[in-house]
Design goal:
The chain has helices spanning 10-19, 23-48, 70-75, 77-88, 107-115, 124-135, 145-158, 161-179, 190-207, 209-212, 217-227, 232-236, 244-270, 277-283, 294-325, 327-341, 350-353, 357-369, 401-404, 448-465; strands at 91-96, 99-104, 121-122, 185-189, 376-380, 384-386, 389-391, 396-399, 466-470, 478-479, 486-487, 491-496. By secondary structure, the chain is an alpha+beta fold. A hairpin with a 6-residue loop joins strand 10 and strand 11 (486-487). This is Lanosterol 14-alpha demethylase.
Length: 499
């Protein structure tokens, strides 16, 4: 539900300015940039008068006013952070687009974020402006965190074993049907296909059959418009600007809400009790006995779908490329399918998924090297201490799973894709926050089990259907211009397996 919020790069400015094609909008944009700049310079002046006795985190200087390190960071964020770690240690600050970011790198430094109270390191302050227009009011970061925690608990009740058992069947069937269009062999965009498949499976499993049955091209476009709300422009610019992408997002939100309202209403009046997540939410109550209203149910359903959409589709695409690159590993995974499920490969069962341990480790290792959420962020609402430094109020405090999961003083052969590393003693296992693709603490992901079921089911099905290889040895580079780091030019070669 959180997102990788701020790959602030030259691309960002291009994107933002590119969408502003009306004169009025350009003027408004200029005004907001000037306002932000004024805020930035006054902050700089104020900082001089701050308490000089406090030891602040090392600050990476920049000669570029306002933009600061946005260009270098946007171009290659991981490299930027790793170099800063070498030079300044686990805690350091720098400025981008008028905002000061303090990173806590490595397991020990990250403890501050994961053990903090939401009132001290606050998530709403950084995420709400993106999520509230997309999910709607009354849920997630639009409400005080104790309420969101109650909502997370309700969602978690719906993400249970009994439902997962049904989900495996649905996901397998959706995968077989979707990939019929791929034929026997060819070269295709794997990421695009998996993104489309994941929205279909997530809609079936998380929203239920009534909503899934309405998922045609028009509704898919509405989801895409809604999803367009998770943009650099939405994060950076005031919400009242009349940008086309903002208008599309708001219109899509209204239309999707109407679709969901009708389905919820029908369920409520029909009295039919279907055992699915929608029903779990209709029946759920807060601690004080109040049930969720239709706005809240709708917001949570949108949130569930979008929280898992990019995270699971990028992860499964990267996993495909890692397996295509290592054909021996791919064959081992296929052999595991036969060993666990039987030589004739009958339909998959939820109970078999946990025994697919090599596939499980491949997913775990994919999430180590390509965690979809590169940075978790909070706003410091009170001064915080890490590694002997005082982090002032107003800093955006960040932890990066990507960096923690490849730190050279924690991980052996850190850049190798080696799923078997988890079979032997590894130093990272002794560090609590060395591996955090799903976060930790009060904001921890509730979708981990669902994501594992979904990605393992899709890949079990695909490995049974096809043999994959890289196209002329090309392994995708990382596209840093998207909020979640997607594979660049993600074309894969495939050939149907002989039975
Ligand atoms: C590979 C798949 C996924 C990954 C890697 C992932 C990762 C994360 C991370 C890192 C966080 C913590 C964010 C933070 O602390 O700022 C998070 C939170 C969350 N995720 Fe996921 N997620 C995935 C899939 C899902 C799915 C499928 C769902 C829903 C079905 C989901 C729902 C949530 C929710 C509700 C939160 C809580 C946010 C909060 O309390 O602030 N995620 N996820």
């Amino acid at each position: 539900m959180s997102m990788h919020l701020y790959q602030l790069s030259s691309k960002l400015l291009e994107d933002t300015v590119g969408t502003v094609n009306e004169n009025l909008t350009s003027v408004l944009l200029a005004v907001s940039v000037i306002t932000l700049s004024l805020g930035y310079f006054s902050k700089l002046l104020l900082r001089k008068s701050a308490d000089d006795n406090l030891k602040y985190p090392p600050y990476i200087p920049s000669s570029v006013p306002f933009l600061g390190h946005a260009i270098a960071f946007g171009k290659s964020p991981i490299e930027f952070l790793e170099q800063a770690y070498e030079k300044y240690g686990p805690v350091f600050s720098f400025t981008m687009v008028g905002k000061t970011f303090t990173y806590l790198l490595g397991s020990e430094a990250a403890t501050l974020m994961f053990n903090s109270k939401n009132d001290d390191l606050n998530a709403e302050d950084v995420y709400s402006r993106l999520t509230t227009p997309v999910f709607g009011k009354g849920v997630a970061y639009d409400v005080p965190n104790p309420i969101f925690l109650e909502q997370k608990k309700m969602l978690k009740t719906g993400l249970n074993m009994a439902h997962f058992k049904q989900h495996v069947k649905i996901m397998e069937a959706e995968t077989i049907e979707y990939f019929q269009r791929w034929g026997d062999s060819g070269e295709r965009n794997l990421f695009e296909a998996l993104s489309e498949l994941i929205i279909l499976t997530a809609s079936s499993c998380l929203h239920g059959k009534e909503i899934r049955s309405q998922l045609d091209e028009r509704v898919a476009q509405l989801y895409a418009d809604l999803d367009g709300g998770f943009s650099h422009a939405a994060w950076l610019l005031p919400g009242w600007l009349p940008l086309p992408s903002f208008r599309k997002r708001d219109q899509a939100h209204r239309e999707i809400k109407n679709i969901f309202f009708k389905v919820i209403q029908k369920r409520r009046t029909s009295g039919e009790k279907v055992d699915d997540i929608l029903q779990t939410l209709i029946d759920a109550t807060y601690k004080d006995g109040r049930p969720l209203n239709d706005d809240e149910i709708t917001g949570l359903l949108i949130g569930l779908l979008l929280a898992g959409q990019h995270t699971s589709s990028t992860t499964s695409a990267w996993m495909g490329f890692f397996m295509a690159r290592d054909r021996t590993l791919q064959e081992r995974c296929y052999a595991e399918q036969k060993a666990v499920c039987g030589d004739d490969l009958p339909p998959l069962h939820f109970d078999q998924l946990k025994d697919l341990s090599l596939l499980d480790r491949c997913l775990k290792e994919t999430l180590r090297l390509r965690p979809p959420i590169m940075t978790m962020m909070r706003m410091a609402r009170s001064p915080q201490t890490a590694a002997g430094y005082t982090i002032p109020v107003g800093h955006q405090v960040c932890v990066s799973p990507t960096v923690n999961q490849r730190l050279h003083d924690t991980w052996l052969e850190r850049m190798e894709f080696n799923p078997d590393r988890y079979l032997t003693d590894n130093p990272a296992a002794r560090e609590k926050f060395a591996y955090v693709p799903f976060g930790a603490g009060r904001h921890r992901c509730i979708g981990e089990n669902f994501a594992y079921v979904q990605i393992k089911t899709i890949w079990s099905t695909l490995l049974r259907m096809y043999d994959f290889e890289l196209v002329d040895g090309y392994f995708p580079t990382i596209n840093y211009t998207t909020m979640i780091h997607t594979p660049h030019n993600p074309i894969i070669r495939y050939k149907r397996r002989k039975p």
